[in-house]
Amino acid sequence: MTRAFLHGFAGDPSVWAGIARSGDACIALPGHGRELAPTWDANLDAIATAVAGHDVVVGYSLGARIALGLVATARAQRAILISVNPGITDAERPARRASDAAWARRLREHGIAAFVDAWQAQPLFATQARAPADRLAARRARRLALDPEQLARSLDVMGLAEMPDYRAAVTADRCRLIAGADDAKFVAIARSLPAPLDVIADCGHDPTLEQPDALARLL
Length: 219
Description:
- By secondary structure, the chain is α/β, with parallel strands linked by helices.
- The longest helix has 28 residues.
């Protein structure tokens, strides 16, 4: 069995080092080293081509949303979804669109370094302070190498407000869920979905950073 891995927003394929195996594929997402198409669906098409031939798509956060989109639209058969949000209601979209637009403005007006500092300071990522200093520094350095305009466009086109609500596509025969035990919001989301859930101890939102060895064993 081979797997295709999709990283999260402001990440890159290197986050899967030590987690992916020989024969797996680690894919750069649109706006993160891959050309960004103008719509959510067009970007799904591009990723579907990149993951073709692999048995399972494994995604974290934004990558998990894309992996779920591939399953929901029959572009992939099965997915492992790490820290996934399966979609929001139409009533929630304006507020989320405004939030994503504010982050995109920060990128365009203040640059990548200021953005990365603010992004990493969000309460969602507070548990990452427990990760080894060298791992945190390496992750920050890779983020600083990303193109701020492409990241901003990713928020414009691939933000949660632009993604269809795929909640109904999460089924036990097609999806498996993973969340960090200390990420209360996303554990609650996962438990609301009808698919098997594995919870990683001593871990917050990003197991690829906080508990890569435990994530690799689980996968």
